[in-house]
Amino acid sequence: MHALWGEILAEALDQRSPLLLVAAFVVVPLMRYAAPEERSRRSGIFLLVAAHLVLVPVAGALRAGPHPGYAQVHAVTLALGACLAVFLGGALLFMVALPRLRLDPPRILQDVMISVAVLVGLLWVASSQGLDVSGVVATSAVATVVIGFALQDTLGNIFAGLALQLDDSFDIGDWIQVGDKSGLVTELRWRYTAIETRNWETLVVPNSVLTKQQVLVLGRRKGQPLQWRRWVYFNVDFRHQPSDVIEAVVGALRAAPIERVATQPEPDCLLMEYKESYCRFAVRYWLNDLRYDDPTDSVVRTRIYFALARANISMSIPAASVFLTKESMGRREKKQKQADDKRVALLRRVELLRELPDPDLAEIAASMRYAPFTRGEVMTRQGARANWLYVVVEGEAEVRIRSDAGHEHAVSTLTDGSIFGELSLLTDEPRPATVVALTDVECFRLDRAAFQTLLSRRPELAEKMAQTLAQRHTQIMSAKEDLARQAPAPLDHTTRDFLAKIRDLFGLDDGR
């Protein structure tokens, strides 16, 4: 028995088993720490260690015999030890050492190098056991030719995958387009590349296909952030000037940020071509989250729609369309009266105008212009100059004040019947606040010309309007953060100031 254990110990020393076990106990914990996702490699090492530990005592027992099968078992055990040494060295190099140096060779390259090292180790074992390696190599060459012809497509995919990873054409996490399919690269395997599309599909493309045709890498430009230019087309009737269309659309797209749309380069609008009865335009913007192409296109189209509606620019209709309406003069007058009555009722809810008689309200209502906004748009901006006010018909908007320190916060919410912009219209002063649409908002816009005629005929209204403006202005100024320690100007003093500005702007007599 003593002699048996001695032979087993001698066999273990010949096989370098203690050294291999120590290496395994050191490398495997390092693998678990550095690459916890590599379970399969750790499992392979455990299997090799277990097989080696089982065969070493068997070889030792046969050696003590001695038994004629010892040489074969000894060679197999030695081969397992060589494979174990290669796998441990590869794991230490590719999972621990190189990542610490910020080097990450492609997985296929790692597998090829380890496979070559295993082959060299096996040949070394065969040579050390007296086997004629040259004959084995010659036989292997013939077998390789036969296998190569039989598996040429598979081998082509394997080498194509190796080439794709070595030249860094694209990597996992890139968005690519192959033919008419596009998606996110999720796997780069020996034989194929897996691409997840936006339709919740996985496209499996053989690597040889990717090396033989054009592959478009989306959103990538050297030295630039990930963003992909998108095109949104729309058609506008010939009756509208292209410059007006471009100004309205660009202003709406740049006025307020749009989620997932890059701020640089800024969105723009181009006249693309002339058609039979319309002009074809395109909005170009840069998408910085490639997962949401169609949803972001939809938001941009909504901005375009509302911007054109505010500018009274109509989208195109087919040239062959014919509209026939049999309508009497009485019916047209009735419909117009109903629309005018709705506008007058809306104006009567406005504090600034509610005391005006119906004829005056009807005159103002006739000059009202439909001006809708979509959610998230800036309806007016603090510091801007404009000669119109808005009356909210439906929806909600938020009034925001930016202090001198640059901080912006909400101070109130506008709902149905609210107005804003009256200060700039009546005094020509810059807008005192920014108004942002919280929902889709329907508005009517009133220009200064409507008030010019009204105040010229009834100058006494200027004082009432000045009082309303003074109250609004005092509320806004009190809301500013940088004026929290200052008392607002007296209301009567502010009223006199606004009255003077209104009279000066509209050319009214001061009454003295």
Structural notes for this entry:
This protein has 4 domains: 2-150, no CATH class; 168-218, SH3 type barrels; 228-310, Alpha-Beta Plaits (2-Layer Sandwich), CATH 3.30.70; 350-506, Jelly Rolls (Sandwich). The protein has a 5-stranded antiparallel beta sheet. Strands 9-16-11-14 form a 4-stranded antiparallel beta sheet. It is α+β, with helices and mostly antiparallel strands. It is 51% helix and 18% strand. Residues 145-151 have low confidence and may be disordered. The protein has 16 helices and 16 strands.
Task: Output the keywords.
512 residues; alpha+beta; SH3 type barrels; Alpha-Beta Plaits; 4 domains; 5-stranded antiparallel beta sheet
Computed Rg: 40 Å
Number of helical stretches of at least 4 residues: 16
Count of the separate structural domains:
4
Level-2 CATH architecture of the largest domain: Sandwich
Q: State the helical fraction.
A: 40-55%
Can you identify the CATH superfamily of the largest domain? Jelly Rolls
Q: The CATH topology of the largest domain, please?
A: Jelly Rolls
Classify the beta-strand content into a percent band.
15-25%
Give the strand line-up of the largest sheet. 4-3-2-1-5
Query: Kindly, what is the distance between the CA atoms of the first and last residues, rounded to a whole number of angstroms?
Result: 132 Å
Unreliable residue stretches: 145-151
Q: Helix/strand-derived class?
A: alpha+beta
Q: Average pLDDT value?
A: 81
CATH class of the largest domain: Mainly Beta
Morphology call? elongated
The counted number of beta strands is: 16
How does the major sheet shape up?
Answer: 5 strands, antiparallel
